[in-house]
């Protein structure tokens, strides 16, 4: 029985570490950090940006896992919302640049038809995943 629990702990920790690493890699590859560093003339501190993203991901995982009460009040929520809005905006701009790869991909793969279907299924997958997370997963 002890080995079973030890295996489950190991599996949970490694799965969480892999997911967190994937999210950090996604944010880095999409180019949010590079765009911010170039726009703010702080490209020499890009390693600091990456370290901050990793630390933020670790703290975010800890907060999501243990859900400690954080008494920040209305002003704290407003500041958090402002920072989250800035991050989501930067991520959206970076994703828009990544989406520009679709014309190159269709040209290289010689896709003449079916592109709207691919985009439709990408959107449906994203929508169903969000629906599952928001409405089904948290109804426990």
From TrEMBL:
Q: Which residues cross the membrane?
A: 6-34, 46-63, 75-95, 115-136
> Does the record bear Transport in its keywords?
no
What's the short name of a Pfam family annotated to this entry? SpoVAB
Give yes or no: UniProt keyword Membrane.
Answer: yes
Question: Keyword set for this entry?
Answer: Membrane, Transmembrane, Transmembrane helix
InterPro entries associated with the record: SpoVAB
- Its protein name is Stage V sporulation protein AB
Question: From which organism does this entry originate?
Answer: Anaerocolumna xylanovorans DSM 12503
Starting at the broadest rank, the lineage of the source organism is: Bacteria, Bacillati, Bacillota, Clostridia, Lachnospirales
């Amino acid at each position: 029985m002890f080995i079973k629990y030890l295996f489950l702990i190991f599996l949970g920790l490694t799965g969480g570490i892999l997911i967190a690493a994937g999210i950090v890699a996604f944010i880095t590859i999409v180019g949010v950090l590079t765009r911010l560093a170039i726009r703010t003339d702080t490209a020499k501190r890009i390693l600091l940006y990456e370290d901050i993203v990793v630390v933020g991901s670790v703290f975010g995982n800890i907060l999501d896992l243990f859900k400690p009460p954080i008494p920040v009040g209305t002003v704290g929520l407003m500041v958090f919302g402002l920072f989250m809005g800035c991050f989501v905006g930067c991520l959206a701009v970076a994703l828009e640049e990544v989406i520009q790869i679709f014309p190159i991909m269709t040209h290289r793969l010689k896709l003449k038809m079916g592109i709207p279907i691919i985009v439709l299924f990408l959107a449906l997958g994203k929508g169903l995943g969000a629906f599952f997370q928001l409405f089904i997963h948290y109804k426990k």
